[in-house]
Amino acid sequence: MIGTTEIILIVVVVLLLFGGKKIPELMHGMGRGVKSFKDGMKGIDADEEKEQKKE
């Protein structure tokens, strides 16, 4: 499990690497990626349900 100290360290490293202005762009891109992944997983689940109903 990640503790508070590790999270703070990660945030500081990200700020140093990308700077404050790039962070919102990175978060927006990550959000789109997560949404795309979730949508893909829902599609797989729906396909599996269709296959089970056919049998």
Give a verbal description of the structure.
With 55 residues, the protein is an all-alpha fold. It is built from two helices and no strands. The protein has helices at 4-18, 23-54. It is elongated and about 55 Å long. It starts with a helix and ends with a helix.
N-to-C span: 42 Å
| Residues in β-strands, percent | under 5%
Rg (CA only): 18 Å
- The total beta strand count reads 0
Give the assembly state of these chains.
single chain
Biggest sheet, open or closed, and with what strands and sense?
A: none
Spans of at least 5 consecutive residues whose pLDDT stays below 50 are: none
Order of helices and strands: HH
SS-based class: mainly alpha
Instruction: Give the mean pLDDT.
Output: 87
Please give the count of helices: 2
Q: What overall form do the CA principal axes indicate?
A: elongated
User: In percent, how helical is the residue content?
Assistant: over 70%
Features:
55 residues; mainly alpha; single chain
Write the layout of secondary structure elements.
Layout: H1 4-18, H2 23-54
Task: Report a brief summary of the structure.
85% of the residues lie in helices and 0% in strands.
